[in-house]
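Complex 458.
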Amino acid sequence: MKDHAATAVGLSRWRAPQGIQTTTQDGTRRMAGAAKLVYDGQELELPIIEGTENERAIDIGKLRGTTGLITVDEGFVNTGSCKSGVTFLDGEQGILRYRGYPIEDLAEKSTFLEVAYLLIYGELPTKEQYEDFQHSITVHTMIHEDLKRLYDGYPKDSHPMSILSSMIVTLSGYYTDSSDPLIPMHREISMARLLAKTPTIAAYSYKKSIGQPFVYPRNNLSYIGNFMNMMFSVPATDYEVDPVIERALDTLLILHADHEQNCSTSTVRLVGSSRANLYATIASGVCALWGPLHGGANQAVIEMLSRVHEDGGDAKKYIELAKDKNSTFRLMGFGHRVYKNFDPRARIIKKACDDVLKKMGVHDPLLEIAKKLEEAALEDEYFVERKLYPNVDFYSGIIYRAIGIPTDMFTVMFALGRMPGWIAQWKEMIENPGTRIGRPRQVYNGATERRYQDIGKR
Ligand code: ACO
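Predicted structure with acetyl coenzyme *A bound:
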């Protein structure tokens, strides 16, 4: 190995920008200054780009070609994987906006379907555009009868996320003539089908788990109303959608609709960059979402709250356990890679949780436990120092429980909400002529070359 100690790698601060130099075609600005990298006796200028919210980044696109170096950033903590105009979030200030609109406004005034349109097409729809969009989704709510038979192959206690991911990828087999991601018409119909059919697939997986007959979609109901009807109605009796529940679910799905380059969205972009069809791409996102450090946290939170409750409700005991580095226990629903102040979604959900439970006349002891845990954590030095706050998943499960959604369906609810975000991010990526296949590099740290030994000599 070359000894580079004498020519230490040093990344100087960029020179004070003299103002904007150029606005590039992708809407970012190239700053007048540059970061300087001094390496091996050479000096390399790395351009600084700036986004519309003044976020700055070093463009290292020419780094390897010029110096032979790559960068290492495990967990992608410092790495911007793309330029995107879908969602802006500022973790320090607790800001979240979809296409420029604050999440607080959208949660209060909009509907999930309108937000889906906004995310996917970039603008709020006119009345006519909204009706067209609604229509295009409504006409695709049924799934092929043959697909229904696939449910028979799953054991009764299969996790609904496994059913959801495999059913979504299986859809590609039914639409082989219209799933080319490079053809605009194929993209449009694939997007509509996914938004329309995911609630049906999700509700069927619940019906399967409880042994009730599947309920066909009803196109005279709203998007959420139809989902609730497929979940909770039975052929033997009438079912009416409760408007309080409908609005609560609408709000929850809006809050989950996008969150820029998180684990599942990055997965969607990576898989989609290989030009896999949209069904395969979204199925990969569903799998990534399932993990307890990501979307699976909403299920893990309720399991944790139930455990604390059954153990006598001592919040402090579990706060201590979460701090103990010899234990694998974490306070689920707490902490976030990006939010280091508060998660604006958690604020809205906490309030919605109080409102919904009150309106429904539900008293849930787990809500009291959650509030006790939050209070204890927010006063604890460990959590304060590390800037760990409740995230979107901390209170969402309590609302789902009140509505009657079983715990193992919580992450499916998250997937329903995230669907437009995944689609919007994929559409942005696939329609960008500059997109290249996602292919990170590595620093190899395994064995150096060695010779094969016959099995008898090992
Ligand atoms: N409970 C206890 N300690 C925690 C928690 C927690 N929930 N979260 C982070 N920490 C501690 C870590 O142990 C670490 O401590 P250390 O500095 O002493 O080693 C420090 O805080 C930083 O944590 P990291 O794991 O390095 O932070 P990272 O950004 O990688 O992880 C994550 C973020 C995965 C969300 C993490 O906070 C976590 O595991 N939370 C619980 C799971 C959860 O709620 N996930 C949902 C996230 S929101 C979403 O995806 C929708």
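The CA atoms of residues 248 and 352 lie 7 Å apart.
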